[in-house]
Amino acid sequence: MEQVKGIPYGVARFEEVREKNRYYVDKTMYLPLLEETSDYLFLIRPRRFGKSVFVSMMQAYYDIAKADRFDELFGGLWIHDHPTPLKNAFQVIYFDFSQAGAGMERLEYTFNDYCAKQLDRFIERYRSYYDEDFFREVKSTTDAANKLRSINGKAQELGYPLYLIIDEYDNFTNVILSEGGKDVFRNLTHASGFYREYFKLFKAMFSRVFLIGVSPVTLDDLSSGYNIDWNISQDPRFNDMLGFSENDVRTMLRYFQDNGKLRAEADIEAMLEEMKPWYNNYCFAKQCLDKERIYNCDMVLYYLRHQVLYGHAPEEMVDKNIRTDYKKLKMLADIDRGNQRENRMSVIEEIAATGSVLMNLRTSFPAEYVTDDDNFRSLIYYYGLLTMGARYGDMLKMVIPNNCVKEQYWAFMRDYFKRSFDVDLSALKREMMAMSLEGDWQPLIRRIAEAYKENSSIRDSIRGEHNLQGFFKAYLALNSLYLVEPEIELNYGYSDFLMLPDKARYSDIAHSYIMELKYVNSTATDAEVEAKSREADEQLKKYSADKIVRCICADTQLHLLKVVFRGVEMEVCEEV
């Protein structure tokens, strides 16, 4: 009887998944399509979408040294019954540049050292294909570029095709860009920069090349002369090549239930509904906007692991290992630390407040223009902090994908606001509990309003409706008893804040809320404030009659709150 497969949570290597009998979501059916597309390919995807497992699967499939393990590694997978002519046809050079070391000191040394060690492993793996003199020559060479030239020359002489696979091809330069600025990056990737020299070698040497990473910044600077068609990042044929489809997730859950790892009475469809607002909703091609959305695979495995171990969903739906991913936003805001930082922060604040932004998506751009408006917005998308939501004329409306990413925005914004005024989070959380369990909502709203006023007095840029919404959202989101849904459509309108009780995990929530947050500038008259207040009354009454609200907020007391600010002063704070 076959042993039940394990959960590949935290496993990044295909061979380890197969050797240790971990569950594998089959992606091998994409190999023939990749082969037909081009000999040289770039693919960009956010972190935690299974990139490393995929490229290590490619390495195992094409490596001639692993031909005798084909049945062991690929038995039961699609490609085992549909092998291509290129199966196990190459000597593979594999680099993972996230391991190359990217500290600002000794850049060239650390990069050369990593590449040299990888090339040593290459010649050791294929030692039987080369004579001993050549083996010793490669091993004794300390310069990685010279090692690579020697290997390429000898391989061509002997008729051995080489396949180059690079995981995180942009990691090295992205870190440099954030830590050292555009000048250091430009010296590295232009003229005689050592990193650019490596890419010149790559272009001329290999029968096939597959590069995968997170952003296109490096691509434009390093790939001069490469065919633009190599970039398949927005190709609809590869939209769901990485990540999990809903069917992938459903099949995996049923496998573990059928094999006794999930409770027999567990409701698979309810699990999917629970995961969807947190881990789903990614789209990477305009032509796929109306098709099924994709799940972040790392987060699905985190959830599944908790269900198998403890018989219920994790109390914290966001894996603690990615809670610090909001630092990506800090890196994006701080790129080059230039005068445009406030402009970049205003874009991030707009996204955090409204959940969306319009852009013309750039497929590549040089580092020196990374802070230009559309390039910067595009970079936020490539980092997985936005995804394609809808077409808007010839532009794209990008949206925050899910609650998991929303938490990253809110954590970043709280950290950003803290620089100006430190809110007492312990007191805030106590007031949130009182709001949730006792219906005592005024202390919380007044504390956030006071913090907004203090913050604005120090930092003028916070003023305005979007900034006000973003500020409130960042602190209301601390309450894990609710899903804070801003701008959700209710009864043909959009509520500012619908605080949905998470009854699946917290059955004792007694109160739910719809809040309308209104803003007028500091010079507005009392009549203008009153007009905004009346407008909030009408909207709240309309929203409270919505059937979605009645369903979600059943068994709780629904509170309709209106809050009106004149500049930084809260003028109205009432329950309708």
Kindly report how far apart the N and C termini lie: 64 Å
The profile of the biggest β sheet is: 5 strands, mixed
Number of strands: 12
* % residues in beta strands: 5-15%
Tally of alpha and pi helices: 23
Largest sheet strand order: 8-9-10-11-12
Can you tell me the CATH class of the largest domain?
Alpha Beta
Q: In one word, what is the shape?
A: globular
CATH homologous group name of the largest domain? P-loop containing nucleotide triphosphate hydrolases
Tell me about this structure.
The longest helix has 19 residues, at 107-125. This protein starts with 13 loop residues before the first helix and ends with a strand. Helices cover 47% and strands 14% of the residues. Strand 6 (387-392) and strand 7 form a beta hairpin. Helix 6 packs parallel to helix 8 (144-158) and helix 19 (425-438) packs antiparallel against helix 20. It folds into 3 domains: 14-236, Rossmann fold (3-Layer(aba) Sandwich), CATH 3.40.50; 246-315, no CATH class; 421-576, no CATH class. The protein is α/β, with parallel strands linked by helices and 576 residues long.
In short:
With 576 residues, the chain is of the alpha/beta class. It is built from 23 helices and twelve strands. The chain has helices at 14-19, 31-37, 51-62, 70-74, 78-81, 107-125, 132-140, 144-158, 171-189, 194-205, 217-222, 246-258, 268-279, 297-310, 327-334, 341-354, 373-382, 403-418, 425-438, 442-458, 465-476, 526-544, 547-552, and strands at 40-44, 91-96, 162-167, 208-213, 356-359, 387-392, 395-399, 482-490, 493-501, 511-520, 557-566, 569-575.
